[in-house]
């Protein structure tokens, strides 16, 4: 990363964290140049970049200011207690499917979408990589590639782990049909029907569906929107219940956007080792952090082979290609064999495309552009919520990803809100699909994964009006 | 199909069935011209084609003769009784994996291979279809295509059903990660752990692994190499046991190559209806029939929605792409939802490639070439077995596919044979991996899916010598 890029990232972090408040004047170019020991032109370049990202504003003869958009009128929600401390049978699938079905219409404003706008991905470049990959692979490899995954792709993924400070043997890696297959295979490797699994609350709805499908019981651990899963509650539950696995998102948790900081990651790992409980670390959003450095996963600490770290290209590069992976620790062999008995392998051409793209396509450049697009879209949605949503609404401010979690006044029923919004061509993800016990009735997840337009702004206005009717 | 093609197919069928014996003189061009009411040049064209396929031979001034290769020195095996009539726990997976692992070496003569030679597939043409499909699809469709499968592909598959005489509503179709995912999802839709499932004996080893993985118990029904699964035994078992599903291959059963004729398909369907038992009809080899017409599946009779008909492009067009499907009858919705919770969808680019190829690539032309190649390779392997394998060996003569099933003298141990053969660079699939009870110790499946070369011939000589050491 160049000097001016690093400076820009540092300032962006200060703005995101509220250290530099909306409307506040930035230090002058001269001050920064002196304090950081860089040339004035480096500071100019950094500020120019922040201006292009919509984070700051130049006022003639006055200097640079944090944009008003980044105000913090709506508060951040606190941690919500989980309803009932008991382990719950999961029966949320019908609700989830009926909601997901209702979100299918391509013409709605896609605040309910699970994917970012596909226009943000380098799909034509990937298609060229696929043609090249297929040409270079030869016909024998199309069959051979079904065993153990594309070697070039495995190498590229292992390389990114090393660059991120995680050493792991390549043979821990299993390439999968997206992170969803990885998570399914891992969970099946370490549980039997009826077992208890600790999950987050609120949780990614698909994890609830998987538990239901495998007849597992959920022990819901509350998540703090700022700090991640509540480790005190987890420690208590691990001590009292025969929990067979934890399934957590350590970064940019869906739907809250919460991340565990370094000390909490260490504390979580110590708990796993103490209780000999494996962790499914679902890290599908890892590459969508807004900060300058990718956070390291709990997997980085994993001497014991207890962590199954699941990643994916679906949210950051190649939606629809269905390529993900797991670094499965001591379960690697069981997971690979289980895959051979169910789907055999992910699509070989899709693997070849991604392997070639990672090597030649400019992945890191794409990721920087994508993160900046998402960051400015987040600012736009936060600002619109500030302006249009009723007083007493709360919202998260995640440091990455493309979801905001809203906690509306208690009187709001988000399933009813969804019906009203869909009638007006606006989708959203209502709170109850994120909970085994169908809580969070007054909450909703909104996606800012699509470019912000006048239509998005009008949709926020209309949502605000609908919220006021409750 | 043109007139001369139809005539060639009719003669090929007579040769395959032994009506025209090896060495026998074919009717003269004049005779055939008169009896079929076609021009002499049509007969010439047909005979020319059969000569090119290696089935007949022209002798100057004597006419055309059935090639000597197609002799029948080795007998066809009979039906083998299943060991023990009880339902069996399945525990064959470790054996299967250790055998499959040993077959990985790319340098062996691949008689143990599960796939035909990839050189027989139009992979460069498919790669062009993929590039075109991706270009025409646009970015939104890469995400949208994850729900319900590529519409163009669904349409093409439904069209082939209609052409084959099967009417089915398009919404019964679920596109899957190969037939393996389809079979897994279907079985999970209709069973719970501990349930009984009727399977064939010998059976495709992967079906045994799936039963083991899902903790299902196998009721093995013997298969007659000529007539397919024994319906009397099946009727008896259905009457006595609470069987929750049947999993059969109605055509070119793996490993025996047996197919059910029309009356047996009807009888099987009547049994399903009488006992209200669903059928997983695994039809992965349907397109590899050597006869002129594709056989219709049991699914064609399925008024009741009991049949889940699973197909795949992996064995006939696009290995490694991992695209198959199921026409799932009344389970279609359950199967689609179960997929959304496990792998979400098959790779969208792979689906687009196959959709474009089916529409523009010349699929039927490719299939004709592939069938003819396999048919002549079968002749070559049968002839080599005749020459080199010990007296008392028996072999199947399937009307399609790329597997022969050998029954050696009782003293032969095929697991030991495999070890000896591998040491000499020859692979094969030993009998015990095809049985829940690890029977068929003196049997083996050999693939003729690769072009026949001097090396193949030498490998058969060497196998014959190894067989003689038992």
Automatic annotation (TrEMBL), chains A, B:
Domain HTH gntR-type stretches: 1-69
Database matches in Pfam families: Aminotran_1_2, GntR
Organism domain of life: Bacteria
GO terms, molecular function: DNA binding; DNA-binding transcription factor activity; pyridoxal phosphate binding; transaminase activity
Keyword Transcription regulation: yes
Keywords associated with the record: Aminotransferase, DNA-binding, Pyridoxal phosphate, Transcription, Transcription regulation, Transferase
Family note: In the C-terminal section; belongs to the class-I pyridoxal-phosphate-dependent aminotransferase family.
Official protein name in the record: PLP-dependent aminotransferase family protein
């Amino acid at each position: 990363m160049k000097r001016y890029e690093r400076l820009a990232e540092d300032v962006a972090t200060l703005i995101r964290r509220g250290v530099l408040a909306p409307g506040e004047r930035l230090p002058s170019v001269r001050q920064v140049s002196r304090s950081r020991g860089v040339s004035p032109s480096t500071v100019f370049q950094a500020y120019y970049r922040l201006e292009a990202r919509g984070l700051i504003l130049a006022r003639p003869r006055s200097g640079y200011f944090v944009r008003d958009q980044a105000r913090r009128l709506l508060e951040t929600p606190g941690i919500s207690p989980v309803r009932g401390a008991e382990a719950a049978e999961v029966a949320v699938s019908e609700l989830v499917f009926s909601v997901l079905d209702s979100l299918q219409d391509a013409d709605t404003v896609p605040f309910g979408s699970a994917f970012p706008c596909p226009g943000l991905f380098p799909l034509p470049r990937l298609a060229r990589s696929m043609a090249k990959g297929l040409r270079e692979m030869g016909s024998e490899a199309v069959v051979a590639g079904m065993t153990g995954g594309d070697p070039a792709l495995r190498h590229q993924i292992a390389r990114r782990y090393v660059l991120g400070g995680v050493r792991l043997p390549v043979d821990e890696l299993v390439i999968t049909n997206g992170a969803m297959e990885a998570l399914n295979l891992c969970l099946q490797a370490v549980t039997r029907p009826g077992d208890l699994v600790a999950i987050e609350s609120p949780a990614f709805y698909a994890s609830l569906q998987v538990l239901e499908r495998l007849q597992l019981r959920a022990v819901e651990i509350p998540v703090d929107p700022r700090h991640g899963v509540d480790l005190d509650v987890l420690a208590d539950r691990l001590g009292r219940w025969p929990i067979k696995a934890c399934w957590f998102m350590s970064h940019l948790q869906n739907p809250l956007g919460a991340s565990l900081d370094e000390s909490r990651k260490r504390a979580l790992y110590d708990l796993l080792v103490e209780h000999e409980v494996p962790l499914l670390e679902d890290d599908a959003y890892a590459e969508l952090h807004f900060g300058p450095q990718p956070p390291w996963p709990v997997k980085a600490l994993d001497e014991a082979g207890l962590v199954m770290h699941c990643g994916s290209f679906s949210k950051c590069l190649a939606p629809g290609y269905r390529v993900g992976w797991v670094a499965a620790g001591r379960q690697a062999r069981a997971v690979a064999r289980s895959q051979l008995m169910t789907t055999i392998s992910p699509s070989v051409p899709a693997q070849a495309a991604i392997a070639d793209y990672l090597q030649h396509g400019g992945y890191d450049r794409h990721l920087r552009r994508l993160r900046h697009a998402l960051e400015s879209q987040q600012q736009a949605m936060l600002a619109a919520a500030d302006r249009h949503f009723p007083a007493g609404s709360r919202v998260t401010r995640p440091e990455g990803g493309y979801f905001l979690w809203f906690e509306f006044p208690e009187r709001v029923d988000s399933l009813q809100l969804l019906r009203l919004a869909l009638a007006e061509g606006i989708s959203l993800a209502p709170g109850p699909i994120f909970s085994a016990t169908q809580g969070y009735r007054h909450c909703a997840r909104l996606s800012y994964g699509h470019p912000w337009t006048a239509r998005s702004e009008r949709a926020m206005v209309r949502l605000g009006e609908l919220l006021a009717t409750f």
